Amino acid sequence: MNKLLTVFTPAYNRAHTLNKCYESLKRQTCKDFKWLIIDDGSTDNTKELVELWKSENNDFEIKYIYQKNQGMHGAHNTAYENIDTELLIHISSVLNLSPASFFEDITPSVMQNGTKNILVGRDNNGNISTNECQDKLEDAMIEIKHLKAVIEGKDKLLEEKERLINVLMNK
């Protein structure tokens, strides 16, 4: 049966924190997901820990990929190359998904809105949230667009200044 959601967790020497994430995934009431762990060159016991979990009856698939250390971007690129579900959510190794119905709660709204990316983080009270994080992202994107326009405006002013200096120097 094809799963709807891939839960992607990058890991570099995260054996000491991955258990928190694993336990919260086990508590999820919706098991329509697979957990993709990209181990970015860990030298701790991350691999052994994940292999132990894979042997347990979790009601969800765990896919583990080890690669030579390439940094966060390399781990993300490897994950994107190995996703075969409709939706993706990136979960940090230290994140404890609460409530247990987290996937059940977010999946319908994501499907209804046609969103393929889910941004998850903590709100101002420390609770896991998708809405406040999405709002913060949208505010940040507006600010980035504004800053980009300011920079482009300054670049144009500098070009005009340089042109005027050249005109004056050639007189």
Describe how the helices and strands are arranged.
Layout: E1 5-11, H1 15-26, E2 33-40, H2 46-55, E3 61-67, H3 71-81, E4 87-90, H4 102-113, E5 117-118, E6 121-122, E7 128-129, H5 131-169
Parallel strand pairs: 1-2, 1-4, 2-3, 4-5
Antiparallel strand pairs: 6-7
Helix pairs in contact: 1-2
List keywords for this structure.
single chain; 171 residues; alpha/beta; two-stranded antiparallel ribbon; 5 helices; 19% strand
On the 0-100 scale, what is the average pLDDT?
A: 79
Tally of strands: 7
β-strand percent reads: 15-25%
Give a quick account of the main beta sheet: strands, pairing sense, barrel closure. Answer: 5 strands, parallel
- In one word, what is the shape? elongated
Specify the helix fraction band.
40-55%
Supply the helix-strand structural class.
Answer: alpha/beta
N-to-C series of helices and strands: EHEHEHEHEEEH
Spatial extent as radius of gyration: 22 Å
Counted by DSSP, the helix tally is 5
User: What separation lies between the terminal Cα atoms?
Assistant: 77 Å
Strand order within the widest beta sheet: 3-2-1-4-5
Low-confidence stretches: none
